Amino acid sequence: MNPHKKISVECRNIELSFGSTIVLRDVDLMIEPGEFFALLGPSGSGKSTLLRLIAGFNRHQRGELLVDGRDITPVPAHERNIGMVFQNYALWPHMSVFDNVAFGLVERRVARAEIRRRVGTALEMVGLGSLAARRPGQLSGGQQQRVALARTIVIEPQVLLLDEPLSNLDKNLRVQMREDLLTLQRKLGVTTIFVTHDQEEAMTTADRMAVLDQGIVQQVGPPIDLFDNPVNRFVANFVGTTNLIEGEVVSADAATIRFSATGIGEIAVPATTGAPRSGKACVTLRPHTLRLARTRPVGDDGQVWTEGWVEHSEFLGEFARYRVRVGELALLSDEAHRLGGALYKPGETVAVGIEPRETRCIA
């Protein structure tokens, strides 16, 4: 079920306003053919608006929307051959699973024999071949989600749009469904755009993702790049958990930025692309890279050590998360838990180790 070649989707300088409220600002994105691409951001960031714009339900006031190199701005939604799975599934409760999936083909006046073949194939692909006669009310949430997906892929869309399709499922089912979605997408080879506010969903499925805030694309790239090298505080905070340490750039050369923070001293931060070279700035430091010890290690291990005390602790099974007070700073540290390992107690004094190579300087 993949008669179409893989195609690209490109947004060029797109802006959209509702009245005087600007919802999308100068959005520039290139989504590669066959890519699984995620739009990640908080509520109100513009991600669902952008998805609906690509589907044809919204219309931008400025810019171009290119599918396979052709501007489809004036093309109405029903002529775009773009499939969309909605957050609430939008299934017809009085129709069988088969008829729900067949609906789009019936509207397109496809021959009955072809409808039977394509619906059967779509239901087998989502693992519901034996449930064709049931109605949506007789299905679990995960099964309903699969029906909505089958109804979309049966029309053989050039582009597949997913608007938070897993948000109504419980955690364990979400994990299974995102694996199934990715497997199906790889099998179909269809260019897929996935909207979510859940960073874990985006990071585990997307080839690349764009982080949006207030209608502006903050950063685009593979999940590992956004996690390791955020370009600003918003991305650092939204993609994963981080510590932001305020301070000042003391000096900089081609390889190193010397950063000074009260209570910690100087840190030799790698000079990454786009990092500030002078003035006020901050360092981002992931909790799992911060080391805690009951006594400061002897000798130079390359880390910057300071002292603090445990303000709060949470045992989360695989690891314990501590909030450590270092002067005016409250730093999060994630320590892997091993069988029989002793936890740090609130109020306990600890040595805090920062690995300079794990830090990034951002404005």
How many domains is the backbone divided into? 2
State the CATH topology of the largest domain: Rossmann fold
Q: What general outline do the C-alpha atoms trace? A: elongated
Q: Would you list the SSEs in sequence order as H and E?
A: EEEHEEEHHHEHEHEEHHEEEEEEEEEE
Radius of gyration: 25 Å
Average pLDDT reading: 91
Distance linking N and C termini: 48 Å
SSE class: alpha+beta
Strand content: 35-45%
Largest sheet: 6 strands, mixed
Architecture overview:
- The protein is an alpha+beta fold and 363 residues long.
- The protein has two domains: 9-228, 3-Layer(aba) Sandwich (Rossmann fold); 241-362, Beta Barrel (OB fold (Dihydrolipoamide Acetyltransferase, E2P)), CATH 2.40.50.140.
- The protein has helices at 47-55, 97-107, 112-125, 141-153, 171-188, 199-205, 223-228, 233-238; strands at residues 9-18, 21-31, 36-40, 62-67, 70-71, 82-85, 159-163, 191-196, 208-213, 216-221, 243-252, 256-261, 265-270, 279-285, 291-293, 304-315, 319-326, 329-336, 349-354, 360-362.
- Helix 2 crosses helix 3 (112-125), helix 2 packs parallel to helix 4 (141-153) and helix 3 crosses helix 4 (141-153).
